[in-house]
UniProtKB/TrEMBL annotation:
Domain Tyrosine-protein phosphatase: 1-125
PROSITE patterns: TYR_PHOSPHATASE_2, TYR_PHOSPHATASE_DUAL
Top-level enzyme category: hydrolase
EC number: 3.1.3.48
Keywords per UniProt: Hydrolase, Protein phosphatase
Molecular function via GO: protein tyrosine phosphatase activity
Gene3D superfamilies cross-referenced by the UniProt entry: Protein tyrosine phosphatase superfamily (3.90.190.10)
Protein name (record): protein-tyrosine-phosphatase
Family assignment from sequence similarity: Belongs to the protein-tyrosine phosphatase family. Non-receptor class dual specificity subfamily.
Native organism: Discostella pseudostelligera
Family matches, as SUPFAM superfamilies: (Phosphotyrosine protein) phosphatases II
SMART domains the record matches: DSPc
Residue stretches making up the Tyrosine specific protein phosphatases domain: 48-106
InterPro entries reported in the protein's UniProt record: Dual-sp_phosphatase_cat-dom, Prot-tyrosine_phosphatase-like, Tyr_Pase_dom, TYR_PHOSPHATASE_DUAL_dom
Length: 125
């Protein structure tokens, strides 16, 4: 909700995984909001939504913008998305992508079962 900070950091797209965070707060930011995914099991069942979020990041970057993914603690759902993005677009394994993310977010603990399901559905074949 810090508009000044979002602008300062060039954030143009936000992916919200928190049931309590506000969405569509600033008209110039493109939001993608998932307020009903609270567990790794639910996220795994909705792996198609994870791919939509990955593509939301890709669209932001293609347009010269920056995306921010966030969830309540900033270590599970939001990180699962960033790792999935790196798996798809940087062609990294989930382990390699997590190593990259943990350089700036040491507390990162993505949902491995979700990443495995994502890999099997979107990256194999």
């Amino acid at each position: 909700m810090n508009h000044q900070s979002l602008q300062k950091n060039g954030i143009t797209h936000i992916i919200n995984w928190s049931s309590s965070a506000k969405c569509n707060s600033f008209i110039e930011i493109h939001y993608l909001c998932y307020k009903d995914i609270r567990s790794p099991t639910e996220m795994e069942r909705r792996v198609d939504d994870l791919d939509k979020a990955v593509e939301h990041i890709a669209l932001a970057r293609a347009a010269g913008g920056k995306a921010m993914s966030h969830c309540w603690y900033g270590k599970n759902r939001s990180v699962t998305l960033v790792v999935a993005y790196l798996m798809k677009y940087a062609k990294l394994s989930s382990e390699e992508a997590l190593t990259v993310v943990q350089k700036t977010r040491p507390q990162a603990e993505p949902y491995q079962n979700v990443l495995d399901a994502y890999r099997d559905r979107y990256l194999m074949g």
